[in-house]
Amino acid sequence: MIKKGGALTKQKKRLAKALNVRYKVVILQEETFEEKASFTGKLWYWITGASSAAVVLIIFTIVFIRATPLREYVMGMSLNGFERSRLIEAYTRIDSMEQAAQANTIYLTNLQQVIGGQVGETLEQAAGQQAAGKATNAVIPATADIGLSKDELALRELVESGAPYDLPENPGNTSTGISSYTFYSPIKGIISSSFSAKEQHYAVDIAVKLNEPVRATLSGNVVFASYTPETGYVAIVQHSNNLLSLYKHCASIIKKVGSFVRGGEVIAFAGDTGELSTGPHLHFELWYNGNPVNPTDYIAF
Fold first, then answer.
1. Which of 65, 101, 208, 273 satisfies CB 3.0 to 4.6 Å to 189 for a cystine?
2. Which of 146, 113, 140, 118 is nearest to 225 (CA)?
């Protein structure tokens, strides 16, 4: 037992002696071996200093990573509650924007088909095809400002200064179908060409006098007001419940894109513009959910 205690004492003395041995660190120039700096100290000084520097460096690294965005690139670092909620909110906004963009693409595609007189698809069908990657992008021709003469401006002021139209369009709002609306007749005249799906004539042509006022069949927003070579001056009004009304071969249009119009309000004047026109008349179309409907089923011309 005494021998064992004596051996431990000798080991402690050797360790203490080794730790108290002084070492010198010299910095020399490589080419001339000129001494530039030197540091002298006991071994335990060097060990303590190196350990302290390592601890300080580790603490600084941890604090720096946690306090900066670098923590997102470190494995095992989880987001706190606030950051997680912001991330979820950002993903939700992106998803909502994507759905809005898809809905706009479907709407523009149907609108282009309506302008071209082609049968479209319902929004539900188009949305299903777009989700499968089958839908194509469509571009609507740029709108142009319509110049109005003094007589047309005077007539416009005269019409707009009249009594408001009080006939309810959808009384009670108890039904959302197209049959629930009370349509205004866009113009009074003689039907020269009826609606015919077989002949791909998705409209009624009403023969009228030149510059007869053309009225909006329902309240809505003007989404197209421009000139096309085949159909002349064209106005399209977007109504609620995926309902569109088209007015073609107009002599002029007095409403601009984005304007809100009330049912029965004058939006244009009948004319004979466009290559497909054979005389003064109004080419009137009614589209519901991307498909044409016979206007005479709902409107008395």
1. 208
2. 146
DSSP letters for 131-184:
HTT------PPPP-PPP--HHHHHHHHHHHTSPPP---SSGGG---SGGG--PP
d(C-alpha 3, C-alpha 142), whole Å? 105
Answer for the pair 188, 207: CB distance below 8 angstroms, yes or no.
no
Residue-wise pLDDT for 143-165, tens only, equals: 444 556 666 666 666 555 544 44
What sign does the CA torsion over 108, 109, 114, 116 have? positive
The two structure tokens encoding residue 187: 């113009």
CB contact at 8 A, 103 and 97: no
pLDDT of 173 over the 80 cut: no
- Residue matched to tokens 């007015």: 247
CB neighbour list of residue 160: distance below 8 Å, 6 or more residues apart: 265, 266
Query: pTM of the prediction?
Result: 0.50
| Cβ-Cβ contacts under 8 Å for 65 (sequence gap 6 or more) | 71, 74, 77
Dihedral through CA 120, CA 125, CA 127, CA 130, nearest 10? -80
Residues 6+ apart with CB under 8 A from 102: 127, 130, 131
3-state helix, strand, coil in the chain (%, to 5): 35, 25, 40
- Contacts of residue 280, Cβ cutoff 8 Å, sequence gap at least 6: 207, 208, 209, 210, 212, 270, 271, 272
| Per-residue pLDDT tens digits for 51-77 | 899 999 999 988 887 777 777 666 555
The mean per-residue pLDDT over the stretch 174-185 comes to: 79
Band (49; pLDDT cuts 50, 70, 90): confident
d(CA 135, CA 117): 19
CA torsion, points 98, 102, 104, 110, in degrees to nearest 10? 180
